[in-house]
Amino acid sequence: MPNKNSAPPIAKRIPHQLEKHGHVRVDDYYWLNNRENTEVIEYLNKENEYYQQATAHTKAFQKSLFEEMKARIKEDDESVPYFYNGYYYITRFEKGKDYPIHSRKKESLHAKEEILFDCNEMAKGHTYFNLAGLSISEDNVWASFGTDTVSRRQYTIQIKNLMTGEILPVKLENTTGGATWASDNQTLFYSRKDEQTLRADKIYKHKLGTSATDDTLVYFEKDETFDVSVYKSKSKKYLIINSSSTLTTEYQTVLSATPDAKFTIFQKRIRGLEYSMSHFGDHFYIVTNKDKATNFKLMKTLENKTSKENWVDVIPHREDVLLEDIDIFKEFLVVSERADGLNKIRIMPWDGEGEYYLPFGSETYMAYTTTNLDFDTQILRYSYQSLATPSSVIDFNMKTQEKTILKEHEVLGGTFDKNNYVEERVWATAKDGTKVPISLIYSKGLKKEGLNPTLLYAYGSYGVTMDCHFSSVRLSLLDRGFIFAIAHIRGGEDLGRPWYESGKLLKKKNTFTDFIDCSKFLISEKYTSPRHLYAEGGSAGGLLMGAIVNISPELYHGVIAQVPFVDVVTTMLDETIPLTTGEYDEWGNPNAKKYYEYMLSYSPYDNVVAQDYPNIYISTGLHDSQVQYWEPAKWVAKLRILKTDNNQLYLDTNMEAGHGGASGRFEAIKEIAKEYSFLLDLEGIKK
């Protein structure tokens, strides 16, 4: 148990009045919203010291957990090569090194390896490093790449000559990292961010051999609720600018061969109209919600008639099937669908003969198409995994229906056998009668007597689906008697688009009550009990954690909240904070009274009261651009004053990282070892 000699820090209270719609809130910890203030840094350091002291007795266990988890991972590992434009591309890791090495081989896997980027070398001297947005010109000579050394997702793009190895002196600052080359191999398009809000709002054009100051602004997105990006169609014929908000999209195109021509609008934005498009032959294929197609449908239109009145149905809308995406090949259309909460991959020959679905047996799996850059091929590459089955990459011949497993994720140590675990999908009934699926995994032979430690995980926002992925790290819990469960709650898109719509805006509370009802189901069915039930969520899932501990704290023995979004009202009223304005369609705009009042009724920080709370471990990053560090810091400060129990409350701030946590391959496992040791310590499991 925690070191009784260490007392938690108490943040000073400086009342700050916040008034909106004639309603006044007093925020005693508003002052923490300034990372330049030395007192703020001092407070965060004190919280870190308290956490370290209080958990000192678990340090050796944390280390052994880390070594145990690391030992299951193949250190000298590499990705399955994919072939693109004459080269095989490979990402690999070397033993003892934290970062990937990106390489390629010309025309054959037996050819000499060209190392494009060794991130281990590039990361030297940085506490955080991430390389993103690798883009290679059509002549295979130039590579653009983005690097972030702060973890604020502000990337600097540079350009490398792959023939000489020279990195050009030009630096394109404050970008998303993503860029795309025109067919002339001289022109690079990229998106740049607003310095303050970090919204990607501008598309620029850079010409090789010129200064960054000479770059041309191609497009500026004035609407603060939209982000912009730029990419090239798989057919390589078009450069495409995408403007998107939560509910609305708009595309612009230009021929890749004429990058200095003017982009033309594909279909102008109409609020509520969402679409994405792929080019094939003389048509564009469009996945869209047009005509009230809530679960989306597939349409097509001629290249020269792109406005919506010209679109015609290819796959009509279905009430019970969500159309998620398509992959276009010369002879086949591949459709990614979701029915009953499960992934389906549908193969449709263009000649209309003999369409079929890939067969999947389990109910706790995920399957998705992966890197399919080659247009003229019969081979579809997809990935499959389940809670108990390691991830595999499969090449599937769509003509012969033969499949080749190229790689199955290897679990080292010689003790893992997927047959030692039970996978289940069960359905809880929410308070409004809705059936909510829960996916579970646990060791064989486990008895349902209400005594099993159980970790229930969920996210439940932005229409993000929580699929059943395999984790070798998770075995450290399963092999110590834990049940791991995922609650597929509303607010995600697990059961189609209406599932998302019924867990956002003025229906957001369904997300929280679904999770609570899933918890009650696991307790009533004797999987576990409140003494052994734990909850975990991050970011918007951290908001979920903050809400459930206010509403039903008695159901949980412990809660893990990673980078939690808990100060909803204040953040959504501050338009200078990164990402805020783009979030209005998800949470509502509190400048409107009805949204203000609804948010205020569930915002975790605003609803902390004098009551017993579970044991809580909260992690954050000082440089987080998605959820600012001060949200969890304020939440902890308020909990310390108001909670009426003696349970553990820890704030663990990474003073060097942001939203994604540590950047090294194994550094991230150290974070998980901290979380697992918190859970295992509460269960009295010492080794």
Class per helix and strand makeup: alpha+beta
Side-by-side strand order of the widest sheet: 30-31-33-32-34-35-36-37
Distance between the termini: 14 Å
Helical residue percent band: 10-25%
DSSP strand content: 25-35%
The total count of helices amounts to 12
Average predicted confidence as pLDDT: 93
- The low-confidence parts are none
3D shape? globular
Radius of gyration computed on alpha carbons: 26 Å
Strand count: 37
Layout of helices and strands:
Blueprint: E1 16-20, E2 23-27, H1 38-54, H2 59-71, E3 82-84, E4 87-92, E5 101-106, E6 113-118, H3 119-122, E7 130-136, E8 142-148, E9 155-161, E10 172-181, E11 187-193, E12 200-207, E13 216-220, E14 227-232, E15 238-244, E16 249-255, E17 264-265, E18 275-280, E19 283-288, E20 297-302, E21 312-315, E22 321-328, E23 332-339, E24 342-349, E25 356-357, E26 365-369, E27 379-386, E28 392-397, E29 403-408, E30 421-429, E31 435-443, E32 454-457, H4 475-478, E33 483-487, H5 497-501, H6 509-524, E34 533-538, H7 540-551, E35 558-562, H8 568-573, H9 584-587, H10 593-602, E36 615-621, H11 630-642, E37 649-654, H12 667-682
Parallel strand pairs: 32-33, 32-34, 34-35, 35-36, 36-37
Antiparallel strand pairs: 1-2, 3-4, 4-5, 5-6, 7-8, 8-9, 9-10, 10-11, 11-12, 12-13, 14-15, 15-16, 16-17, 18-19, 19-20, 20-21, 22-23, 23-24, 24-25, 26-27, 27-28, 28-29, 30-31, 31-33
Helix pairs in contact: 2-12, 6-7
